[in-house]
Specification:
The complex is a heterodimer. Chain A is mainly α. Chain A has helices at 2-20, 26-46, 64-91, 95-114, 118-136, 143-174, 191-208, 217-224, 227-251, 257-280, 285-306, 309-334, 347-350, 352-366, 372-386, 391-417, 429-447, 450-457. The chains are: A mainly alpha, B mainly alpha. The interface between A and B is medium-sized, with 34 and 20 residues.
Chain lengths: 459, 167
């Protein structure tokens, strides 16, 4: 609750400071302060200090898993601001408003992580989506950005409609919006409406997390949006929506597991296949990362498929590993002019340090041992094995992970083994320190995943 | 006849008459204006049924916002007799068939409902009153109600960011 409250308030603070402060670069400082404030507020709440100690008649729940995820999200937000807030300034004239929108999105993320009522889930998803449409189109002079925003808005509005329809069916079947009432329809005749509702909600959420076959908007939107905002929405927002997805299916629909298990398995397989195969053929690194985010969504779908405690641990690790690595790669990519694979030729000679950090990030995304990505993939797959069914899905996922190595290592190969000039990019000492911290965190989580997971049980 | 019954018949005649005028009038702007009359008449019905909130929302949202949007669209499209495209007669036939089907469904559905025949709807209950709704909104549903303001605020910020001139 602290996070929801403070992020909404800080969004307003950002807006008003834009009114009174004409200096653009102050925005960064205020935003960074806000991000630290959110982290502090959330950590305080995990230790029992909450501003509003109330669950609003059961509309919110404060499970350890969800609170811990919010901490990970706040940490990622701080890293994101430290690395990329300079580029947010470069997008357009409304710097303070962009930061304000990001804080509103954090408010939505808090709602999506802590909901215990479908109304809250709906409002949370909307608070995330609407600022994202705007951030996507914030580069107003760029036609690609406009196209991406329009596409995202129209498709997103449509999927929100489907979500509402699903929620209406669920309400019809159970007579309640409360998550814990979802498993118990009033009588057997209403079971069919419960199933229809689950399918619609599944479709809408799969759209929001860009799982195939509802992924078609992703490459265009991620490619067209200003790169600095792509970095935000492909990482923190996506992970938050997955946590919402998992929480809903874990808390509400686990009684009906047999009804939807096969559909989620098929979505998972299709997402893995389409994401990985299409990423192989991309020429632009930004577009490749968009497809790679679809592929990674496939792995995160495993947590929804498995819905057990191991899946929750896997989700946390995956969120941390994926956010860290992808934010790291994007923060370098933003500073480059040439987004093709050839743009990375000879990068290691020019920037040996950044090339090393990028390599660690790419290894983590591919799931190489000793990086966080390895344990993240291990946990989600082990959770799926624990269910005891659909072993073919796990084998298929391992195959697909092997394919993903190809396109991640293309960048590594270009950086180290190809002749080239290497692009000039400007970095500050702070930037380099944070990048080293990212690499260190990824390796730390790759050696000791319990460093994060212990917090689940530690009080 | 009590006042309520007189009002009921008056509003019904008004609603049906205005709806007919809306469908038959040649000028699309007149159609929209007649439609506004229909909405007002229906809002009157809501008030007769003790549903104040619905009545007011119906006027604000439908008769106000959506109709203004309709008017704008029609004026922007500059529809008049000369620019009107030739209507396909198959299209007209298809429209008639589709509308007839809808009518059939409605009649069939309403004919079979025993509830409507037997039960007199209780129109004096407190359910539709604004006071009652306000109580629920500010107690049980206070969180979604308040948090929706963040949603609208972000939409407003977005409108300013997108709409402002000069960059």
């Amino acid at each position: 609750m602290n996070l929801i409250l403070f992020s909404a308030l800080w969004g307003v603070v950002m807006m008003f400071s834009g009114l009174f402060i004409s200096n653009k670069s102050t925005a960064r400082t205020i935003a960074l302060t806000g991000a630290f404030l959110l982290l502090a507020a959330n950590l305080l709440e995990m230790n029992g200090y909450s501003v509003i100690n109330h669950d609003f008649k059961g509309m919110l729940q404060f499970e350890r898993f969800n609170m811990l995820f919010l901490t990970v999200a706040c940490g990622s937000l701080i890293i994101y601001f430290l690395l990329s807030s300079k580029e947010i300034e470069a997008v357009g004239n409304h710097v303070y408003e962009y930061f304000a929108l990001i804080f509103f999105i954090m408010c939505g993320i808090g709602l999506v992580a802590l909901f215990n009522n479908l109304l809250i889930l709906f409002i949370g998803i909307e608070i995330i989506s609407i600022p994202l449409y705007i951030l996507t189109g914030s580069d107003k002079r760029n036609l690609k950005s406009n196209e991406a925003a329009l596409k995202y808005f129209l498709m997103g509005a449509f999927s929100t409609g489907i979500l509402l329809l699903g929620i209406a069916f669920l309400y019809g079947a159970t007579g309640s919006f409360q998550v814990e009432k979802m498993g118990l329809p009033a009588n057997d005749q209403l079971r069919i409406f419960l199933a229809i509702g689950i399918v619609f909600v599944m479709i809408a959420l799969a759209f929001k997390v860009s799982a195939a076959p509802f992924h078609f908007w992703t490459p265009d939107v991620y490619d067209g949006a200003p790169t600095v905002f792509t970095s935000f929405m492909a990482t923190i927002v996506k992970a938050a929506l997955f946590v919402g997805f998992l929480t809903l299916f874990y808390n509400a629909f686990s009684n009906n597991y047999e009804d939807w298990k096969l559909s989620v398995a098929l979505i998972t397989a299709l997402t893995l296949f389409i994401g990985n195969i299409t990423a192989v053929f991309q020429q632009s690194v930004k577009r490749m990362l968009a497809y790679s985010s679809i592929a990674q969504a496939g792995f995160m779908m495993f947590t929804v498929f498995a819905i057990n405690d191991m899946a929750k641990q896997g989700m946390l690790l995956y969120a941390a590993a994926y956010c860290l690595a992808t934010i790291g790669i994007f923060s370098v990519l933003i500073k480059m002019k040439d987004y093709t694979f050839d743009g990375f030729n000879g990068f290691a000679k020019k920037q040996p340090l950044l090339a090393f950090v990028l390599t660690v990030c790419l290894f983590s995304l591919a799931g190489v041992p000793l990086t966080a990505g390895f344990f993240a993939k291990y946990f989600v797959l082990a959770a799926a094995v624990k269910t005891g069914t659909y072993l073919w899905l796990v084998i298929f996922a391992v195959l697909m992970a092997a394919i993903s190595v190809y396109y991640y290592f293309r960048i590594v190969q270009a950086m180290y083994f190809k002749e080239g000039e290497g692009q000039d990019i400007e970095t500050t000492p702070l930037f380099r320190i944070v990048m080293i911290a990212i690499a260190a965190l990824i390796i730390l989580l790759g050696v000791l995943p319990t460093a994060l997971l212990n917090w689940l049980t530690l009080y | 006849m009590s006042v309520t019954v007189i009002l009921f018949w008056l509003l019904s005649v008004l609603a049906l008459g205005a709806a007919l005028m809306m469908v038959t009038s040649k000028n699309p702007v007149y159609s929209v204006l007649w439609l506004i009359v229909v909405f007002f008449a229906i809002s009157g019905h809501y008030i007769l049924m003790n549903a104040q909130f619905l009545a007011i929302v119906n006027i604000i949202v439908y008769a106000g916002a959506i109709m203004v949007l309709f008017l704008f669209v029609i004026m922007l499209m500059n529809l008049n007799a000369e620019t009107e495209p030739q209507k396909n007669k198959w299209l007209k036939l298809a429209g008639a068939v589709a509308g007839g089907c809808l009518l059939l469904v409605f009649v069939a559905a309403l004919r079979q409902t025993e509830l409507l025949k037997l039960q007199e709807v209780n129109m004096s209950g407190p359910t539709g009153l604004i006071r009652r709704l306000g109580m629920v909104l500010f107690t049980d549903y206070v969180l979604p109600f308040e948090i929706a303001s963040v949603l609208f605020l972000s939409a407003m910020v977005g409108a300013v960011v997108i709409g402002k001139k000069g960059d």
